[in-house]
Structure formats: structure tokens, C-alpha cells
Amino acid sequence: MSKRTPTLIVGGLVIGVTLFTVVLWLAQTRQAPARARADALASIPVNGKVGFVAQITAIEGNTLTIEVLAGKDYAQRTGARLQAERGKERILIGGESDIRVGAVAQFDGVKTGVNALRLVRVTILTGYYSGPPGK
Fold first, then answer.
1. pLDDT at position 59
2. Would 66 disulfide with which of 50, 54, 87, 128, CB 3.0-4.6 Å?
3. What are the extents of the domains in the chain?
4. Positions of the chain with pLDDT under 70
């Protein structure tokens, strides 16, 4: 055994513990979809940031009508319907073809008025959550 072997072993252990700590921290801070309550939306001021999981119920031009979902696996309708204006939002998961009636997504944006928002980011969750059954 050379003189460098203990140094290499200690160095390897330090690197291993550091990597383990970073992976554990990332796993704990991984963000799940927002679980904003529908009644909390009214308290957000105009130009305030909003984020929630909702289902697209209608599409008219560049405006999506979305209904905020709640509960485990987002299987409950809240009745809170919002008009979401599309523009230069980023689609993080999925693509343009995934934005359709019935799709479930995490919508992040800026509140522009009562029950209205301008989208900043859309994360399609249809493959992960099916949402409530149709009406």
C-alpha cells in the first residue's frame, strides 16, 4: 500500500458523501405541481404571479378557458374558471399539439384581472394526471 492510498480513500469518501447529499437535497426540493386553492385566486392582486393545475375546457383563438383542479391526483373540479391569454408562454413539457380541450396542465402566469391571466409557462401533465371525468 502506497502513501497515497489513504488520501485517495478519504478523497473518494468525501466526494461520495457530497454527491449523496446533493442528490438527497435535489430529491427533497423537487417541485410538485402547485396545489393552489381556487378560493385563494381571488386574493392574488392584479399583476401578481399565479400557478395552479387546471384542465382546459374550451379554446377560442388565443384564449383558453381553464378550470382549476383540486384533490389527490387533481381529480376534483373546483368550479373556478379562468380565461388564460396565450402569447409568448413557454411549454416546458409537451408541445403545441398537447394544448387541447381536456388537457391537464400546470399553468403559471400573471393575473390580469378578475378570473383572467396571461400565461408565462405551461407544463402539460396529461400523461401524469387524467383529471376529473368529463361532464
1. 95
2. 54
3. 1-30, 38-124
4. 1-3, 22-39, 134-135
In this prediction the pTM is 0.69
Length reported for the chain:
135
Pairing state between β 116-124 and 49-60: unpaired
Tell me the residue type at 133.
Answer: P
Distances (CA, A) of 63 to 58, 82, 116, 119: 8, 10, 10, 10
Query: At which residue does the C-alpha cell 400573471 appear?
Result: 110
Distance CA 55, CA 102 (A): 6
- Are 83 and 65 a contacting pair, CB within 8 Å? yes
How far, in Å, CA of 133 to CA of 56, rounded? 13
Please check whether the domain covering 38-124 is classified as CATH 2.40.50.140. yes
Please report where in the chains the cell 427533497 appears, as a residue.
28
Strands (E), the chain: 49-60, 63-70, 76-85, 90-93, 104-113, 116-124
Alpha-helical regions (H) of the chain = 5-29
Cα separation, 64 vs 82, in Å, equals: 8
